[in-house]
Design brief:
It is built from three helices and eight strands; from the N terminus they run βααβββββββα. By secondary structure, it is of the alpha+beta class. The chain has one domain (3-147): START domain (Alpha-D-Glucose-1,6-Bisphosphate, Chain A, domain 4). The strands form two sheets. A five-stranded antiparallel beta sheet has the order 1-8-7-6-5. Strands 2-3-4 form a three-stranded antiparallel beta sheet, with no helix packed on it. β3 and β4 (65-66) form a beta hairpin. The termini are far apart. 20% of the residues are buried. InterPro entries: START-like_dom_sf.
Length: 149
């Protein structure tokens, strides 16, 4: 099960970072050339009301889009699952963790864990490093936007 992960420290509380993250309409304002261009619920729910089983529309750079299913939407994490049945499945997580001893600083983590018949391709010919680069870029843009006063 290949795992790709990236993290960054943001000078804001986990609740503030989560609130900014769930403001999906703002993604185009900070994402720049990041891989994630938009996230939107397929229902009329607002992002804070999304629950396990709800479906999203996610657009990536390069014109790719897909419809993952929400696995978790809690104060600690927002996780979705995208998949091609019997071939590959990816659980993509965004985590909001308090930096120990400081409730006004957040460790923002982004990760993806792959399973399925072709999950080994996530490590093939630099794919893991390429994806980590995309995660790092999104995280930097997101941090800058969150920390703007």
């Amino acid at each position: 099960m290949p795992l790709v992960t990236s993290q960054i420290v943001i000078a804001a509380s986990p609740a503030a970072v989560r609130a900014k993250f769930l403001d999906f309409t703002q993604i185009p304002k900070y994402s720049g050339s990041s891989i994630i261009q938009s996230i939107a619920p397929k229902t009329s729910k607002v992002p804070t009301e999304l629950t396990k089983g709800d479906v999203l529309r996610v657009s990536l750079g390069g014109g790719m889009s897909f419809s993952p299913t929400v696995l978790e939407n809690s104060e600690q994490a927002f996780i979705w699952r995208g998949y091609i049945p019997l071939i590959i499945c990816g659980d993509h997580g965004f985590r909001f963790k308090e930096v120990e001893g400081n409730n006004q600083v957040t460790l923002f983590e982004q990760d993806e864990e792959y399973t399925g018949t072709l999950s080994f391709l996530a490590n093939w010919k630099g794919q893991k490093e390429k994806q980590m680069k995309h995660f790092d870029e999104f995280n930097r843009h997101f941090k800058k936007w969150v920390e703007e006063k």
